[in-house]
Design a protein that fits this description.
Number of helices: 4
Shape: extended
Structural class: mainly alpha
Strand content: under 5%
Order of helices and strands: HHHH
Radius of gyration: 18 Å
Oligomer: single chain
Helix content: 40-55%
Length: 99
């Protein structure tokens, strides 16, 4: 289930009117849209640290929302992998339980 649907459902259940949802390809696009047109977004904190330091964005504290992320780790099987990358790939295989 997409995160925007989860967040919108959460807001609707609490009586907020959600007018529309916009999708962007990059975090920079989202940040620029918010800074120029208002609105809000659900973003990882580390992605907006600079904007927070410059006080261009602010955080709205909410109660926790249970969101499960689906991730993929993709790398070329024909290229050389550094020892660190090999350890990371093996770790992710263990964590994800997949090849």
């Amino acid at each position: 289930m997409k995160n925007d649907y989860i967040v919108e459902s959460y807001l609707r259940q609490r009586g907020y009117d959600v007018q529309s949802s916009v999708e962007f390809g990059t975090v920079a696009s989202v940040v620029n849209y918010i800074k120029t047109n208002g609105g809000h977004a659900y973003l990882p904190l580390f992605m907006i640290e600079n904007e927070l330091k410059r006080k261009e964005l602010c955080i709205i504290d909410t109660e926790p929302i249970d969101i499960h992320e689906y991730i993929q780790v993709i790398y070329s099987s024909t290229r050389w992998l550094s020892p660190q990358m090999k350890v990371f790939a093996e770790y992710m295989k263990d964590v994800l339980g997949k090849e």
